[in-house]
Hints:
Blueprint: H1 8-16, H2 21-28, H3 32-45, H4 50-59, H5 65-74, H6 81-87, E1 89-90, H7 100-117, H8 126-131, H9 134-142, E2 149-150, E3 154-155, E4 166-167, E5 169-173, E6 176-183, H10 190-209, E7 217-222, E8 226-233, E9 238-246, H11 251-282, H12 287-295, H13 307-323, H14 329-347, H15 365-381
Parallel strand pairs: 1-9, 6-7
Antiparallel strand pairs: 2-5, 3-4, 5-6, 7-8, 8-9
Helix pairs in contact: 7-9, 7-11, 9-11, 11-13, 13-14
Amino acid sequence: MxxxxxxxxxxxxxxxxxxxxxxxxxxxxxxxTELEIIIGELVNVAKISQAALEEARASLPSVSAVQWASxxxxxxxxxxxxxxxxxxxxxxxxxxxxxxxxxxQIIRMSWWTQDAYRERVDQFDVAGRLxxxxxxxxxxxxxxxxRLVDKHNQVLSGKAYPTGRDVPHKVCxxxxxMFIIVGTNQLYRENxxxxxxxxxxxxxxxxxxQKFEGLRVYGLLTDSSxxxxxxxxxxxxxxxLDQQIIVSIKRDEQAMSMIKVTNKIFSVMFTAYLDGLRSxxxxxxxxxxxxxxxxxxxxxxxxxxxxxxxxLELAEQxxxxxxxxxxxxxxxxxxxxxxxxxxxxSVRSIPRESLYTVEDEPADLEALAHYLVTKxxxxxxxx
Length: 383
């Protein structure tokens, strides 16, 4: 039985308390755009804050008992979502360790973020807790230089089992969706445990439209203290548990524990990137994927001579470099930096996922930053 902070009966009671049942049903028949305007006007007139509105939405059930019963029956899952964790199979993505210097930069930025937004113990809503993950997610995504992008706060257009909720983070490549992050206040709140599976299935449904049918999709369910990684394989119609990582709420201990989480998030994204390249490489005769490569606004000046094949070869070399043994921290720093250089060459072989307003990609971002700062200050001082 799905437990929620506000049961469906409470919602019905709120609607019926002022004789809105007939009006409510008619309202739901309204065109979606017009309905959004009506709701917006109601919120403004009633002076309901955005925070209160988001809290109310979060407290409502995103997965009904009926919906979950149908879903669980179809995929042979336990009717109690909390028990699935102990029953489903395991599929663990390899863990690739990023350079120690990379983590030092992240710890510094995370520390500043908590100074600015307060620590996790002071965050009582999902949005606040997920905001504290930005210093980890942004640098990891940036390693893919715009080829993997985060299309945040989108509703997944699943047809069979839609939740209607925004997904805080949806990582995409070549229009295909690969990885989502779903946040929760209480990890063992059954509704959120159920939701991660429905969202993963919806993610796989989205990929069918982009000719990525059969591509494994990955998900993370977290309350920013407990991180549970899952995946769904459309080829077998099975869900898998990848890994669970528990993080301390004490700031310094958390900073150290998040090194493992950051490596895992990168590893999942890197695995998804490899999956995507292999999918395109194997389907290189597919006209829709070829058309995407030709019509992408970032490829007008590029000669596209099998870019995905080149990107895949370089990515696999990067993967091999990551997997080499390193007996010391210095050796780990050296070999993982080499792996990242190969990854950079790989991603630069294919078009960006979004528009880019700079004519050429900088070979050295630090050198570019030095040049821009120096130029600004020299101009400001008249030197």
